[in-house]
Amino acid sequence: MMYSNASLPSDGNLASADAATAGAIPWILRIGMAGCFIGHGAFGVITKAAWVPYFAVGGVGEAWAWRLMPWIGWMDITIGILALLRPSRALFMWAAVWTVWTALLRPLSGEPVWEFFERAGNFGVPVAILTVIGVSGPWFSRLPSLWNTLSHQARLTWILRLTTFTLLAGHAGLGLFAHKAGLARHYAALHLTNPAAVVPWVGVFEFLLAGLVLFRPRPTLLLAICLWKISTESLFLVSGSPIWELIERFGSYFAPLALALLLTHSHPVVIQERVLAA
């Protein structure tokens, strides 16, 4: 099967597009991680009652939980800032371990397991970064601003697909199976007649989106998911929650955005044409 050369971008245009993609993706992932840590850290600084049961999982009493929250908050904010200003392997390894642990604290403290999966954007982003930079090499040296993401494109694409699938399925499960009360409050802020009835239907819709990400991902689909997540998480603000709720979930927006960019510049037709011409 042959393709018309007129339908293919030139080598120069391909190189330019690939260079732009390779340069943008590390920043997208770093900003996603930074927002997650800065938003989470802000809640520690201002303190959050919902965190007290998480400290109890580790045997820390309520009095000490309130004392430790600001220290953990400032630590998280520092990690978020370093992700932007001085990235290193040690930083991303810590971020991956810490975000997995804080997500696990939800089911360990008695919350539905869907709370863990819904936070895949938090831990999936640093894991995606580690996929590209690897764990061998200097741990504390500053990494270069640009990483060759396209040399690890297949692996990175799968990590981001699984991340996006999991965060969507987790949020869907909270509505469809766990009947999370906070979701109904969000829709009530939109003055819907029966907000509780909307929650399971949104869950069904998000499960369908998750399935499409896993089996038929497309750039337009991933961009739509990015906008969907920003819109639905913005309901925190509509219902009166602090803006940090929106910022804390940056990984849930930037994971599908990075994936959309990867899928846009995969160039499968060009690769096949070059193989046939060889």
Q: How big a fraction of the residues is strand?
A: under 5%
- Total number of distinct structural domains: 1
Apparent shape: globular
Written as H for each helix and E for each strand, in order along the chain, the element string is HHHHHHHHHHHHHH
- What is the distance, rounded to the nearest whole angstrom, between the alpha carbons of the first and last residues? 14 Å
Provide a count of the helices. Answer: 14
Structure description:
- This protein has one domain.
- 74% of the residues lie in helices and 0% in strands.
- The protein has 14 helices and no strands.
- The protein has helices spanning 11-46, 52-57, 62-85, 89-108, 114-118, 120-133, 153-176, 181-188, 195-215, 219-233, 235-238, 244-248, 250-264, 268-277.
- Helix 1 (11-46) runs antiparallel to helix 13.
- Mean pLDDT is 89; it is low at 1-10 and 267-278.
